[in-house]
Description:
Elements: H1 3-8, H2 24-35, E1 38-48, H3 53-67, E2 77-81, E3 86-92, H4 98-117, E4 121-129, E5 135-141, E6 146-150, H5 162-172
Antiparallel strand pairs: 1-3, 1-4, 2-3, 4-5, 5-6
Helix pairs in contact: 2-5, 3-4
Amino acid sequence: xxxxxxxxxxxxxxxxxxxxxxxxxxxxxxxxxxxxxxxxxxxxxxxxxxxxxxxxxxxxxxxxxxxxxxxxxxxxxxxxxxxxxxxxxxxxxxxxxxxxxxxxxxxxxxxxxxxxxxxxxxxxxxxxxxxxxxxxxxxxxxxxxxxxxxxxxxxxxxxxxxxxxxxxxxxxxxxxxxxxxxxxxxxxxxxxxx
Length: 194
């Protein structure tokens, strides 16, 4: 960063650290012990859709890579679009195999990044539920290299359980690099991966 950037208040963006995802399996154990939320076995990667042959080829590469895992029980990987036009890739694993799920999410992020589509990556999401059926997601912000908890209130309304989110943050503080700026804890309404 140069002197002019400092004067104008510009800063270099944080380099994504995809290896942060590998901290999730141990964080999942901490979260389950501290809050009762257990992994669902569902996770997803969100990216801004891009048209063109190169992107279509990378999507096919992602599908082939993840479909090669024979332990999926016939439900390989799904692509979906949300109401905002973002593409979501949904991966499924047994609920007790968070490490395999994280490996898949890491592989997808890496393939997209290495294919030149890193700027289009938005986030990855790992789903959790408690005994009461409440949902919680750990959201990895690709461009920040940080996580935050997202807890929608059951009932279909777009409301968040802020108390649960802050409680999860307190439990996970030693396991994950949690996003400090609460304004960046964006809601991911309707995201697959719960």
